[in-house]
Amino acid sequence: MSKRTPGRPTAHVRAGAPAPVSIAPNTPRTTVRAGPAPELRITVDRHEPPEHLFRRLLSAYLGGATALEVEERPALSPESRNVVREFCRRTRRLQPVHDTGRLLELYDLEPPTAVDLDGQLARLGERVVEFHREAVESWSGLPLGDDGYWSRRDDDVDREAWYLERCLARDGPGGDVRSAAASWTIARSLERIADHAVTLGELGPRVAELGSGGCLVREVRQYHLQAMAHLEAVLQSPDGSRTNELLDVGEALVAGGRTLSDRLLPAVGDGSMSPASAAAVARALEAIGRTIAYSQDIAQAFFDRSQRSGTDPARPGAIPLPLP
Q: In this structure, are residues 93 and 57 in contact, taking their beta carbons and an 8 Å threshold?
């Protein structure tokens, strides 16, 4: 991932679970305690990388924690405070309310509110598609300025996706476990698709060296347009009625990406493309291919979610998918 805080959370907070990490006596440590189970603590070595603390905070947040305590002995280090500030910036609701020097308390000060899950997922999908298109369109323009632009755009998507995942963990849609799992998959997949927009945006200067008129660059752009048409068609079929068709289209797109990738080595061999440019195009094709794979996951999630109504989402008569 190209993001500043790498990786997904790997330590998940469960009520009643023992702390999985033990440390020697008198070893400086950072402790995260997640509410509403105050007895639960996750303790990490003070000398571990900062992203480990971020992952633990995020894991508790995604699990629906309404209160967090970050403790470090003998005192909170500047690095730990920076992690907490970054965590608060990139998430919603939890804010610091008390600081003793060695203990920083975060609480969810907003009362729980009903969430229009389908509406917010739809808006998140629109934002992700727009993000992707902006990234590829940047290949034709000048650099947008500072190197953090695409990561900040991705942070906006993460904030909304993580909030929806948190709401699902906290409430779930009407107690329907299957529907909650499918909706969680959709939110997580959109978050990951946005990660690949970051890759495409950051590759812009290198791909631009090939010139907008290059045959392969035009085909990569066309491939991305097709991937976006596929994603939009998936998002516009939340009842799963076109799942089989859309999955077939996605498989065909993945195969088309492999064909484009196979042309890179000959291009380097005949001197029409530098190895560095070929590597950039290969990364772009990989990002688009992963985007298609996550779109496939969303299509399958919509299919699974529709099963709760007892309808047949695979009914015939689907409208053909319009690809550019």
A: no
145: left (phi over 0), alpha (psi -120 to 50) or beta: left
Q: How far apart are CA 53 and CA 82, in angstroms?
A: 11
**Which helix (H) or strand (E) element contains residue 35?**
none
Three-class SS state of 13 = coil
How far is residue 7 from each of residues 2, 72, 79, 171, measured CA to CA in Å?
10, 23, 18, 25
pLDDT tens digits, 178-210: 888 899 999 999 999 999 999 999 988 777 666
- Return d(Cα 251, Cα 253) in angstroms, integer: 5
Residue with tokens 């309404």: 66
Q: Find, among 162, 32, 183, the residue nearest to 92 by Cα.
A: 162
How far apart are the C-alpha atoms of 292 and 286, rounded to whole Å? 10
Cite the DSSP H helix spans in the chain.
50-62, 78-90, 117-137, 149-170, 177-202, 204-208, 215-235, 243-262, 264-269, 275-306
| 94-99 and 103-108 beta bridge pairing | antiparallel
Residue appearing with tokens 């709760």: 308
Rounded to an integer, what distance in angstroms lies between the CA atom of residue 168 and that of residue 206?
40
C-alpha to C-alpha distance for 61 and 70, rounded to whole angstroms:
13
State the pTM of this model. 0.81
**What is the chain's Cα-based Rg?**
22
Q: Are 31 and 42 in contact (CB under 8 A)?
A: yes
